[in-house]
Amino acid sequence: MSEFDHAVDGDLVRAPDGKIAVPQDVQDAIRTLIRWTGDDPDREGLLDTPKRVGRAWKEYCQGYEEDPGVHLSRTFEEVGGYDELVLLKDIPFQSHCEHHMAPIIGKAHIAYMPTDRVVGISKLARVLHGYARRLQVQERLTAEVAQCIQDQLNPSGVAVVIEASHACMTARGVRTPGVSMVTSRLLGVFLDDQRSRKEVMSLMGY
Known about the structure:
The chain is α+β, with helices and mostly antiparallel strands.
């Protein structure tokens, strides 16, 4: 079993100090990258960097270790006959783009129109983070969150809007800071009914 394999309980194998164990080949790859950038991986300030970077990336990508849909498995049916939209706004998240592995930092708005079940509002944020903590493109992230909610809750409508800044554009390449990208995914009544679509987009601030 490698150091990144899982124990019986599903947790990552950890070193004796309790920290996530970083395989030597991962550390060697990071040392090679440091050397390629022009620095010396053997200087004092960089000696522990390969382990730190390895642990950081395992944390950045911990979404691969979970099924985000699990967070929606516990629902509540006694909601006093409430059948209007549920909206969670301005959920902060961080991800990394799959093209340059650069940070994506933004916020999401998630809404659904329940039929007979609702979930705790924190669960919507957990679904977002489960997909965001992977190598991503914003378009796919938006679609995955919406489809997960649709599949698990079977609501009459789902709307997900994500607005984010991409370091692959702001810190490299065209180097244009202050630019944000907006993506949306509408399903069910939010796609088919103009009044419902207008209502949810207005409540989201668009």
